[in-house]
Amino acid sequence: MRFGFFTLCVLPLATTSGHAAQSPNPVLVMTSPDSADANYEDKCSNGGNQDLFNRDKFLKLMLADKKSKLSQLKVALLNEIKQSGDEPRGEGVHIGEWNQTFHDRSGCGTNTNSYSAFVVTVTGGNANHTVVKYLVTIDDDDNAGKRTLKIRDIRSINLRNDN
Q1: What are the tens digits of pLDDT across the range 6-52?
Q2: Residues near 113 by beta carbon (within 8 Å), at least 6 away in sequence
Q3: Are 34 and 42 in contact (CB under 8 A)?
Q4: 94 and 119 in contact (C-beta within 8 Å)?
Q5: 96-127 as b/e, with b when 16 or more CB fall inside 10 Å?
Q6: Which of 20, 115, 119, 124 is the most exposed place for a label (fewest CB within 10 A)?
């Protein structure tokens, strides 16, 4: 009976004392239409503070803000589709998968990273027309627990100009 009491009551108290559990997804605060910050408790995360959850949230918040460069790009491309007389397929403008295009770690608490994705227009019905129009790059940096996300560059790409 004593062992059962120890296992059910005392052991959980002993194993949960000490460090407080860090929130896995701290609050992301937009500091401008194209940048955001989040503060993490772990000042020496070895890259652990760069979570996908807040990066995705950052991108959604930028797309929802009419003043954001990414949102303005999407609107401009949709207008370009309308002016061409084509019909957008699906949403008409798609942002592809984000790939890490730069990484530098200095010690356990400083990481500088960039992620890039293609912005593609898709038009037409059965015979669709898909064109990569832009390369968007965001920075996702962690400096001793302060994570900063921001647009680095939006670069026009003209891989083919076939009509």
Answers
A1: 444 444 444 333 333 444 667 889 999 999 998 877 777 666 666 78
A2: 50, 100, 102, 103, 104, 139, 140, 141
A3: no
A4: yes
A5: eebeeeeeeeeeebebebbbbbbbbbbbeeee
A6: 20
Closest CA to 149 of 65, 59, 46, 24: 59
Token pair belonging to 62 = 């930028």
Six token digits for residue 131? 């064109």
Reference 114, options 131, 136, 92, 134; nearest CA is 136
Joined together, the tokens standing for residue 55 give 């990066």
Where the chain has pLDDT below 70, the residues are 1-25, 45-50, 161-163
Cβ atoms of 6 and 72 closer than 8 Å: no
Residues 6+ apart with CB under 8 A from 88: 78, 81, 82, 121, 122, 123
- How many residues appear in the chain? 163
